[in-house]
Specification:
One of its GO terms (molecular function) is hydrolase activity, acting on carbon-nitrogen (but not peptide) bonds. The protein contains 13 helices and 16 strands. With about 450 residues, it is of the alpha/beta class. The protein folds into two domains: about 25-80 and about 390-450, Urease, subunit C, domain 1; about 80-385, TIM Barrel (Alpha-Beta Barrel), CATH 3.20.20.
Length: about 450
């Protein structure tokens, strides 16, 4: 009896000990840091993380009893970076087709192409991006004219033999991913449809810009016809349509204004035409590229259309970007356009987003606007309100930096995704450590003298 009571009491104590620290273990308080929330700044304050979300933030936020405390004195605390127009998890080596699931060349499938089906949570691009403070990404399909790696027209939809171009008007659908360790990185699929316009779109449509605009309008008309007459389509009672059933279904949310259309466009004249087209067709639009956007910034702002841009694009490499300049981001922001700053051109360069933002600041973009352009703006542009900013209730995607995050020499010292701290390790660092000549004063086993 005594023994049974002893073990019963021991079990109760064990349960109490297991339950009591659970809150403490789940709670993290980052104190004394300069906090850039994505929408403002707190000169010195505390961010409290509990159950995967931010539970408190501010100069006087209380530290929960038993919480793990990270002293961020002299450090900067920001939301995690959201990389847009990225290939993270969808492409390992862009020039090796078998490892690149961001593009496809079917002539019978385009709009229904869903990049989320090819995501690889074990991709080496993910931990590399985390090292740069990237916690989420918008993964977009590649197409002629896109910036995501090496893309050629003959490798993408709509450019097959025989001239059957219509499906190639759309590259497919984008997805949002998180970069936390695990076997499922998908946050949300089908967040936007992607399409090339300008020279690339003209090439797909037959060689002229006017042809693409006409073809786009005809496609939207067919999608709406199909949506109104699904039963007739099923019994072959509807006229022949140029797109597959899968593509028609995928485009209904675009035609109804529920899914945004990301349009790669560069020339100012093309931007105006696309804005007019979106108004006529009642399409939700996101501009991608817009190197000459500063010339028509007031028109973009009036249309309430956001822009994804690379502020380093400043060379007149073709007739679409004759007026490209590094002040583009600053000019668009000053006009009231919501901008998101893109990283480099491949999945391996996602962490370049903060360097590009720093260059935009050097060319006139306010510092606070640059931080927003790599955190909260990308999330909101793609309809993701649950992350991107440091605010109560938001997912705890938090980065503690050694200093100003837009300065290349400063690095993350802690990265949290949905409240879980992530390892600051990646294959490139593992290889460096393995083959460093002074590693324990010895070489790896394969290189040991015999």
């Amino acid at each position: 009896m005594i023994r049974r009571n002893f073990f019963s009491a021991l079990a109760v104590c064990a349960l109490a000990l297991a339950a009591a620290p659970a809150v403490a273990q789940d709670a993290v308080a980052i104190t004394n840091g300069r906090i850039l929330t994505g929408t403002g700044e707190i000169a010195s304050g505390t961010v409290v993380i509990r159950n995967g979300r931010i539970s408190a933030i501010g100069p006087d936020a209380a530290v929960p009893a038993g919480a793990r405390v990270i002293d961020a004195a002299g450090r900067v605390v920001t939301p995690g970076i959201v990389a847009v127009d990225s290939g993270i998890g969808g492409s390992e080596v862009s020039s090796v087709s078998g490892s690149n699931d961001l593009r496809q060349s079917s002539n019978s499938l385009s709009a229904a192409f869903d990049v989320s089906r090819g995501l690889d949570p074990w991709s080496i691009t993910i931990p590399v991006a985390r090292l740069g403070g990237v916690t989420r990404a918008v993964v977009m399909p590649q197409h002629p004219g896109s910036s995501g790696g090496h893309v050629h027209e003959h490798e993408t939809a709509g450019a097959g033999h025989g001239g059957y171009h219509t499906p190639g008007l759309f590259a497919g659908q984008a997805a949002v991913v998180h970069l936390a360790r695990g076997t499922d990185i998908l946050v949300r699929s089908n967040v936007a449809m992607v399409a090339p316009f300008g020279e690339a779109g003209a090439g797909i449509a037959g060689g002229a810009r006017g042809a693409e605009f006409t073809l786009f309008r005809e496609t939207m008309a067919e999608v709406r016809l199909y949506a109104r007459n699904r039963q007739a389509y099923e019994r072959a009672g509807l006229r022949d349509l140029s797109l597959s059933r899968a593509d028609l279904e995928a485009l209904i949310p675009v035609a109804e204004g529920r899914m945004p259309l990301v349009v790669s466009v560069h020339r100012a004249a093309d931007i105006l035409q696309v804005l007019r087209l979106a108004e006529e067709e009642n399409i939700r639009l996101i501009l991608d590229g817009a190197e000459e956007g500063w010339l028509v910034a007031d028109r973009i702002a009036a249309a309430n259309v956001p822009v994804l841009l690379n502020p380093l694009a400043n060379l007149p490499s073709n007739f679409q970007v004759r007026a490209a300049r590094q002040e583009n981001a600053a000019r668009l922001h000053a006009a009231g356009v919501t901008i998101a700053i893109k990283p480099g051109g491949s999945a391996h360069r996602a962490r370049d987003a903060r360097y590009n933002a720093g260059n935009a600041v050097a060319n006139g973009l306010p510092f606070e606007a640059a931080i927003a352009a790599i955190t909260v703006n990308p999330a909101r542009i793609f309809g993701q309100e649950g992350f991107g900013a440091l605010a109560v209730g938001q997912a705890a995607d938090v980065v503690v930096w050694s200093g100003d995050p837009l300065e290349p020499m400063n690095q993350p010292e802690a990265v949290f995704i949905a409240g879980v701290e992530q390892p600051l390790q990646a294959r490139n660092l593992e290889l460096r450590d393995r083959y460093h000549p002074n590693r324990d004063q010895r070489m790896p086993h394969a290189y040991s003298p015999r």
